[in-house]
Design goal:
The structure holds three protein chains of three kinds. In chain A, 35% of the residues lie in helices and 26% in strands. Chain A is built from ten helices and ten strands. The N and C termini of chain A lie far apart (37 Å). Chain C: Keywords: Cell membrane, Membrane, Phosphate transport, Transmembrane, Transmembrane helix, Transport.
Chain lengths: 258, 384, 349
């Protein structure tokens, strides 16, 4: 189910401003790849190019290639809507639909695709909530609004919503930055379980988190403010954190800047 | 406390707030410069732009100044007195507002009661308006019917179109277009209703002939869209004109609401693979629903009470037309404007009575709107 | 977005898409068919042609898209086309309103028109002007502002800075209620007072009714602006021992003053166009009456109404009505533009 992502020579723009430049990398299936780097280095922008969410920002534009399996996401005839179905996303702040119940939140993506059968819908919702380690906490109040949950629960609800449509890839944009340590731990555990089935890409500001959850780590940096962000290196997480090949990476990880 | 004392003494010496700028700056020797800087540039504007707020309160702090003896207590009392005067003034304004509302209800009811007690017919069900004769006969049945019908038409036309335009401006139009258009729509909401009335009577009415003929030909069998060929100064024209009039109002408020939909909600839908319309249905409309309802109620309020635009377009009569296309009928506000000139004191009281009914209807509409919004808020949890 | 029409290849991400020019093609076809049908059926009204084209466009889009792209895309496209159609249909009357007012208004709008009254001109004759009406409106609106602005601003201060408890709740509630009062009802209220005291119409009576309409608007906008002032500012000032009322005068009001001014100006623009209460209370007067406290006065919106109603179809009167309407719109627009300018220039953020 999980697919490999191959990025080749990718640049992204906001209007005339070039946010990231010439990024090439491979994201392995069934693994967790972490993006680290100082603020403004374009890691989130890059993440959003992986499911064509970058272009919904006014002026957002992308050049280059993103191969998901054997298809170029930016090739002709590609429907961004189907891309986003295949590549799910979890955002920095939990964003359940406020007017929908917990059940409807998880079912939202399925309903879009016309899966209306009550029984199968209920099954998938349960599976997804279990998959997000949330089932036991919410099974008695599936019809309550999702906004009534705690922040950590909401974030897991969003993960359940994302995996309910069974995407090939799951992108996470600093999923724990708005959460307390205990909720963060719960999400990190969940990420460890989810990588059995999904290709996971996670942006994080927290280097310990990258070291804890990821198999591979990519370090992004920018030459100066206003310059486009670049990929400095990508390698096995262990190597990045013990013996990176680029000095900038070492400086960043040891806290000398950023 | 030390600062407080020094400050209020300065205050007393300074007198009117025109010197506020001068005194605000030298005093700023203390830390925390940020909030101190704030008042300085603005306070220069205070005296000329809120002439009412300042002069009213200015005398209060000045008074205690001439008593230099009471050093310990004077600042405290001055402070407290200033506060008391200011609170009194502002609370007094609030109370005055309530008093005005009460007076409106009381006086209208009183005059209405005078009129209704003279009425020789049933005030609610009579199809006639002859309050000036010694044997007055008048009722509001026609007016209530006309008011409701014209407003319903206006809402049915305006709300969907306004929501669509608001969506157009927030989610569909090219950015370069949407800004200026929104601005223009905003300005159109300020066009006085009498101008809509003039335009309706001299431009819209002649244009309605074609549409009426077409409606009569194809939908005349329904009865309510039959047309006997009179001038198209009918309830349908009034409804359409009212719709055009309230369109900018509803559009503006709805657009404002749609713009405030958190990006996170829209992106949540997008990331699930929703099309633009599905994003709107999943996150924009649910978020904006209560706002759209209150916008519509605002529009409805204007449509119900609109006087001049109806008075110029409708050719009124005191009966209920079966068809929306045939001229005739009337609304509360229009009737007041048209019958006022010929009314004697008794006739005016009768008009006041009909105005009271209009007042009550608008109150009910507003109340209903508020209830709906309150309920929605609880459910949506958007405030959580 | 794709630029070519491709049939769905087996790849999962590829959706069949209509080419970018498809909506335009559908639109052109719809218009062409509408015109053809309109001509054939002998329909004269362009409005009908437009409506027909709109319906054809929406249906055509749905059919085409449903066939090529599938139901979900079709719905999306229909929503898009409906939104565009709604916008275009609504633009027509609103543009027409502005256009007609300007084109017909400039005919008699000149210096003479602005500086003369209707005193010696019969309703159906050409000539005359609106000086008396401008004067009346200025006085009535000015007096109304003098009453409503201070009360409104103070009430808002009460609600935001002091307001707690049942009184504040009641005021908030009734301000809402007051916002919904139809202007003619405000007029009737003052009328009932005048009937009590047996008074004849005069300008200030109109001002009172206008003030009633203006107050809640000022309260609301001022409240919004005061709420925008960050609490930190108040606390910083209070923590320095500045008494509450001076904090309000020196910190809160100056920060919000731009927005408050804007709100007051927009409220003025709103009441300047009110004709219903003026009709009941001020009555209208073809002569110049510079005393708002005695005798009937004219007013610009009322002038437009009376020129239309009393003219018996005379073009001279209609021309005057349009010219007065143009003047009124210009006044209201200038107020609006200036108010917005101030708001932009002095936002507290």
């Amino acid at each position: 189910m999980a697919k490999r992502i191959d990025v080749g020579g990718l640049s992204a723009f906001y209007g005339a401003h070039k946010a990231i430049e010439d990024i090439s990398m491979t994201v392995e299936p069934r693994s967790v790849t972490a993006f680290i780097g100082p603020s403004g280095c374009g890691k989130s922008t890059f993440l959003r190019t992986l499911n064509r969410m970058h272009e919904v920002v006014p002026g957002g534009r992308v050049e280059g290639k993103v191969m998901l399996g054997d298809e170029d996401l930016y090739g002709p005839g590609i429907d961004p809507v189907s891309v986003r179905r295949e590549v799910g996303m979890v955002f920095q702040r939990p964003n359940p639909f406020p007017t929908m119940s917990i059940f409807d939140n998880v079912a939202a993506g399925l309903r879009l695709n016309g899966d209306h059968k009550k029984s199968s819908l209920a099954d998938i919702v349960e599976q997804s909530l279990r998959g997000a380690n949330l089932w036991n906490e919410v099974k008695d109040r599936l019809n309550k609004p999702g906004s009534g949950l705690s922040g950590g629960q909401q974030q897991r609800l969003c993960i359940a919503r994302a995996i309910a449509v069974q995407p090939k890839v799951l992108l996470m944009d600093e999923p724990c930055s708005a959460l307390d340590p205990i909720s963060t731990l719960a999400i990190e555990d969940l990420i460890g379980e989810l990588k059995e089935q999904y290709t996971i890409v996670i942006v994080t500001h927290n280097m310990q988190q990258a070291a804890r959850v990821s198999d591979r780590t990519a370090f992004f940096n920018l030459a100066a403010i206003g310059q486009p962000g670049r990929l400095i290196e990508i390698d096995d997480t262990e190597r990045i954190f013990s013996n990176p090949s680029v000095k900038d990476t070492e400086d960043y990880i040891s806290g000398r800047f950023g | 406390m030390d600062i407080s004392t020094r400050k209020s003494q300065t205050t007393e010496g300074d007198g009117p707030p025109a010197t506020g700028t001068a005194h605000g700056t030298p005093d700023a020797t203390r830390p925390d410069p940020a909030p101190r800087d704030e008042p300085a540039p603005g306070s220069a504007a205070t005296p000329d732009t809120t002439p009412d707020a300042t002069p009213d309160t200015a005398p209060a702090p000045v008074k205690p100044a001439p008593r230099p003896g009471a050093t310990a207590t004077a600042p405290g009392t001055a402070t407290r007195r200033g506060d008391r005067v200011f609170l009194g003034l502002s609370r007094g304004s609030g109370i005055l507002l309530l008093a005005v509302m009460a007076a409106i209800a009381v006086f209208l009811s009183y005059r209405a009661a005078l009129a209704i007690s003279e009425d020789r017919a049933n005030f609610l069900t009579t199809f006639e308006w002859d309050p000036n004769s010694p044997e007055p006969v008048f009722g509001i049945a026609v007016l209530a019917f006309g008011t409701v019908v014209s407003s319903v038409i206006a809402m049915a036309v305006a709300v969907p179109v306004a929501v669509a335009i608001a969506l157009f401006l927030t989610h569909y139009a090219p950015r370069r277009l949407s800004g200026p258009i929104a601005y223009v729509v905003d300005l159109l909401a300020a066009v006085p209703s009498i101008v809509y009335g003039l335009w309706g009577a001299l431009v819209l009415v002649p244009h309605m002939n074609g549409l009426f003929g077409w409606l009569d030909t194809y939908l005349g069998w329904t009865g309510i869209l039959a047309w006997q060929g009179g001038a198209p100064r009918s309830m349908l024209t009034v409804g359409i004109l009212l719709a055009i009039m309230i369109l900018p109002v509803i559009t503006n408020v709805s657009r404002e609401v749609f713009r405030q939909v958190p990006r996170a909600h829209e992106e949540a839908a997008l990331a699930l693979g929703a099309t633009r319309w599905e994003v709107i249905r999943m996150s924009v409309l649910p978020f904006g629903r209560s706002g759209v309802i209150s916008a519509s109620m605002l529009g409805l309020g204007r449509a119900l009470g609109e006087t001049m635009a109806v008075a110029t377009v409708l050719s009124p009569s005191f009966d209920i037309q079966a068809s929306l296309l045939d001229p005739g009928g009337g609304t509360f506000a229009q009737n007041i404007a048209s019958k006022f000139g010929e009314a004697n004191e008794q006739g005016r009281d009768a008009l006041i009575a009909s105005g009271l009914v209009l007042f009550v209807i608008t109150l009910l509409v507003n109340g209903a709107a508020r209830l709906i919004i309150a309920r929605r808020k609880e459910y949506s949890g958007a405030n959580a | 977005m794709s630029t070519t029409s491709t049939l769905a290849r087996p790849g999962s991400l590829q959706g069949a898409r209509l080419p970018q020019w498809a909506p335009w093609a559908v639109a052109v076809t719809a218009v062409a068919v509408a015109v053809a049908v309109g001509l054939a059926a002998g329909l004269h009204s362009r409005v009908q042609w437009g409506l027909m084209a709109a319906v054809l466009f929406v249906l055509g889009t749905y059919a085409l898209s449903a066939k090529v792209e599938g139901r979900r895309q079709a719905k999306d496209r229909v929503a898009t086309s409906l939104v565009w159609v709604a916008f275009l249909l609504a633009v027509v009357p609103l543009l027409s309103l502005v256009w007609e007012t300007v084109v017909r208004g400039v005919k008699v709008l000149d210096g003479y028109f602005l500086t003369h009254s209707m005193g010696t001109v019969a309703d159906a004759e050409p000539g005359g002007g609106i000086y008396h009406a401008i004067l009346g409106t200025a006085q009535q609106v000015g007096l109304a502002t003098l009453i409503a602005a201070p009360i409104g601003v103070l009430t808002a201060i009460y609600l935001v800075e002091y307001g707690r408890g049942p009184l504040a709740k009641a005021v908030t509630f009734f301000v809402d209620v007051m916002t919904g009062i139809p202007s003619i009802v405000a007029g009737l209220f003052i009328l009932s007072l005048m009937l009590m005291f047996d008074l004849q119409p005069f300008g200030f009576a109109g001002s009172l009714a206008l003030a009633i309409l203006m107050m809640p608007v000022v309260v609301r906008s001022t409240e919004e602006m005061l709420k925008l002032v960050p609490n930190e500012l108040r606390e910083a000032s209070l923590a320095l021992g500045v008494p509450r009322w001076r904090t309000i005068l020196k910190v809160v009001l100056p920060t919000a003053i731009g927005g408050i001014t804007t709100g007051v100006m927009l409220a003025i623009a709103r009441i300047a166009g009110e004709s219903a209460p003026v009709l009941l209370l001020v009555f209208g007067n073809p002569f110049i009456n510079a005393n708002p406290f005695e005798g009937a006065q004219a007013s610009l919106p009322l002038y437009i109404y009376q020129q239309y109603v009393n003219s018996a179809g005379s073009t001279a009167a209609y021309d005057r009505a349009w010219a007065a309407a143009l003047t009124l719109i210009a006044f209201v627009m200038v107020l609006n533009l200036v108010a917005r300018g101030i708001a932009r220039w002095k936002t507290p953020r």
